[in-house]
Amino acid sequence: MIMVIMLHYSLNYEINTLYLLWFLEMGCPIFFVASGFGIMCLINSKYEGKIERSNIVSFYLSRFKALAPAWYTTIILVYIANTVSLKLTGSTLPFGTNRDGLSILCNALFIHGLLPFCNNDVVLGGWYIGTTAVLYVLTPAIHRIICKVRNRRVFAAISSFLVIGIWCIWYYLFRDAFTDSGFGYYIFLIHYPEYLLGILLYYDFKESPDTVQIRWYPALSIIFLIIAIALYINLPLFWHSIPVAWMTGLSTYFGLYYMLITEKDKKPGHLSSLMEGFGRNSYCIFLLHGFFVFPFTNWALSVLNKISTPVIISFFILIPLILSLSYYAGCLFNKLIRKCRLLFTSRQKA
Fold first, then answer.
1. With 90 as the cut, is the pLDDT of residue 231 above it?
2. In this structure, is the dihedral angle defined by the CA atoms of residues 256, 130, 155 and 251, taken in order, positive or negative?
3. Structural domain for 84, as ranges
4. Which end of the chain is more exposed for a tag (fewer CB within 10 A), N or C?
5. Phi, psi of 111 (to 5 degrees)
């Protein structure tokens, strides 16, 4: 989440060396690996490790309830903010510029992950929600197959190659949509392997013997991260995100596996508690951070420019402020959504 905030924040600055900060978009593959692991934890605790006909509706409904309230509220907030900005300044905010009714409807129905024309411009980073929704829809089928196959890694490898084959066909048929926007990277086919790595991580951790040898895992995590950075720097712009995302996913797998094993018998420390707080509120932080990385940052920069603050100093001065505001706003938003959800549930029961 911090990586995503920093990426969007850096877009306010025209500093050549900040090009390297674009690598921070790889926070999304990290998210997908963690999401795959998290969804398996949910299935194990809430559905006793099985998604069947009797509980598949409950699973989909729980995912809808987890995504929809904050998502719908954000769509409304962004639309209102842009309406006010249009009336006051004659222009919209730097994000949420797509105000077309059909586009908003597709986002509300969570099908925008499949549609280039409204994939990422109704809400900042909205592509991630659309892609996540598609992966959630596929999760029961993935889980059922993984429970039946003898070798999960073989299934993961074969199915990943298959979805990339589908991506290639889709690219050939709709090349303009893929190259004129980020849709080629945003589409769920690219992030399916990362999500699958998170699911494999759950089983590998759950079934790992006490004598499992993991001393090389930190080194493997660093090696794959270095490969990801090298690919990012050297490959052409349109193509680099795909292999970079996969290498980042592998780096995340080995890093998380090591941390999970080593922390298994330890009490959470201060860092763990901080990361847990970010994780618990990350969805709402993600939805609201655009207001701080763009409008607020532009205002803060205008104030700093008036007192002749050098650009590079402004960059570092505002980082802790932007992160703090995004974090606490996300926490408050999350509490508000939870209270509204509880109030609605209690009224239904009454």
1. no
2. negative
3. 2-349
4. C
5. -105, 5
Place of tokens 């674009």: 22
- Cβ neighbour number for residue 248 with a 10 Å cutoff: 28
Residue that is written with structure tokens 């954000």 in the block: 74
103-108 LR contacts (CB < 8 Å, sep 24+)? 104/75, 104/79, 107/71, 107/75, 108/72, 108/75
Cβ–Cβ under 8 Å, residues 183 and 119? yes
| Cβ atoms < 10 Å from Cβ of 3 | 15
Q: What is the pLDDT of residues 110-161, one digit of tens each?
A: 999 999 889 999 999 999 999 999 999 999 999 999 989 989 999 999 999 9
Yes or no: say if 308 and 37 are a contact pair by the CB < 8 Å rule: no
How many domains would you assign to the chain? Answer: 1
Both structure tokens of 349: 């029961």
User: What is the rounded distance in angstroms from the CA atom of residue 177 to the CA atom of residue 117?
Assistant: 8
- Residue 59 confidence (pLDDT): 94
Average pLDDT for 309-326: 91
Q: Choose between 188 and 341: higher pLDDT.
A: 188
Cβ(62)–Cβ(46) under 8 Å?
yes
CB atoms under 10 Å from CB of 323, counted, come to: 20
